Amino acid sequence: MDTITLSKKEYQELFEKKLRYEYLRQIIEEDIFAPPPTKRVEEIIKAFKQKKLYKQEFLESLEKGLGRSSYFKK
User: Fold this and answer.
1) CA-to-CA distance for 49 and 43, rounded, in angstroms?
2) Which residues fall within 8 angstroms of residue 54, CB to CB, at 6 or more apart?
3) What is the pLDDT of residues 5-55, one digit of tens each?
4) Could you tell me if 38 and 44 are in contact, meaning their C-beta atoms sit under 8 angstroms apart?
5) CA distances to 6, 59, 64 from 17, in Å
6) Using a CB cutoff of 8 Å and minimum separation of 24, what contacts does 11-14 make?
7) What is the distance between the alpha carbons of residues 69 and 73, in angstroms, rounded to a whole number?
8) What pTM did the predictor assign?
9) What are phi and psi of 39, to 5 degrees?
10) Residue (of 63, 60, 31, 61) closest to 44 by Cα position
11) For 46-57, how does the pLDDT look when each residue is reduced to its tens digit (9 = 90+)?
């Protein structure tokens, strides 16, 4: 068996890269192109508002953008 010696800094960099790779791999394995569970713009905006993480300007822009989308047309 061969032994490889790494500095602590090198080990941490490799470990962080591995974690990032695993995170991306998990995301890619999911169906990222699946359609949203609803086509109702009102429901989507309501869900975003309930999170209380987004500014009003963003929510208005999101609603406007979803309204333009052919996917969300009634």
Assistant:
1) 10
2) 48, 62
3) 999 999 999 999 999 999 988 888 877 777 778 889 999 999 999 999 999
4) yes
5) 15, 34, 38
6) none
7) 7
8) 0.52
9) -110, 5
10) 63
11) 999 999 999 999
Residue pointed to by tokens 């905006």: 45
48 CB contacts (<8 Å, ≥6 apart)? 54, 59, 62
- What would the two tokens of residue 55 be? 């500014």
| Residue 23 one-letter amino acid | Y
Contact call for residues 45 and 59 (beta carbons, < 8 A): yes
Look at the block and give the residue holding tokens 């359609």: 35
DSSP string covering 12-61: HHHHHHHHHHHHHHHHHHS-TTPPPS---HHHHHHHHHHHT-S-HHHHHH
Return the amino acid letter for 31: D
